[in-house]
Amino acid sequence: MTASKLLVVIGITGTQGSSVANALLQSPEWHIRGISRNPSSAAAKLWTSKGVQMVKADLDDVTSLEAAFSGATAIFAVTDFYNLVFSPVHAAAAHEAGMAPNEYARNIETKQGINIATAANSPVVSATLTHFVFSSLSDTKRWSGGKYTWNFHFDGKADVVKHIKQKVPDLAAKMSTVQVGMYASNWKGGMGRPQKQEDGSFVVQIPDVGETKLPWIFVQRDTGVYVKALLENETGKDILAFSEMATWREFWELWSSIRGVKLRVQVVSVESFFQFFPEILRREFQESLRYITEFGYTGGDPDVCGDLQELSPNAKATSLREYIGSEDWSSLE
Questions:
Q1: Which of 52, 139, 213, 216 is most deeply packed, by most CB within 10 A?
Q2: What does the pLDDT read at residue 2?
Q3: Statement: the pTM of the whole predicted model exceeds 0.70
Q4: Rounded to whole angstroms, what are the CA distances from 225 to 17, 220, 256, 289, 332?
Q5: What does pLDDT average to over the chain?
Q6: Is there a contact between 226 and 178 (Cβ–Cβ < 8 Å)?
Q7: CATH number of the structural domain spanning residue 127
Q8: pLDDT tens-place string over residues 36-59
Q9: In terms of residue numbers, what domain contains 136?
């Protein structure tokens, strides 16, 4: 059976994009095209070996995106704030402009998102496009009433959504958004990484944010589950993608139970929790966490759905128990 629909995946060699591609890869009705700046890379060739068509395109080049999107039935779009904020080229440009690297990265990320929208709305692409799924996050400044202004990795994406709704109505009519929750794998980057003690027990620090339940996601699996559900529905849906809601304490106590190890939870201030992070990210993460704790991950946006079964009754996200059981924890030993 020949696939009748074409899904173009931005970021297919990254975490979210690869999850989306894997979720649709075995579907007989979908053919997948991946976008890469270097289709000859080892990561890109791996997708080619799976039957994915890999094409070259750059988020800074609208013309290349138009060509990559040609014939698409659906597009999954994601932008990467962290790649931009740690880029030496952009850091130098930010310094020259007298801007914080975070703010500069947000501006570039927003511009790239607008480039994606411009290309997706071009006549040759819009002729076949029915679904445009954008990976966004909530509008911090709006939902906090201006209280939090340094959550740039949220606001750059939210600015793209605002641009599309205000300036690109034809594409807005085809758009759905997915707000991907807190990566359950963030511990690998040091965000609450358990430390093994001499007696074989562990100590883990959690931030002093009360018993707030957070939307943890096994991003490598469940991003695709949610995007697939959006593609099976009419457009105009906004959903929070998560595997399971849990407090920070619940997450690690479940880990301790499953792993069969003794664990002591140490509650520290938000400032202390992020003290070992690169300086460029400390304020960013502190404000982000305080915003999430006070206003919620979606900021309390009433238009964002938090129920996967409402979109797709048969869809199932991964439980934290399943995530913890499948994860490689050998680096903690």
A1: 216
A2: 64
A3: yes
A4: 12, 10, 27, 26, 29
A5: 96
A6: yes
A7: 3.40.50.720
A8: 999 999 999 999 999 999 999 999
A9: 5-332
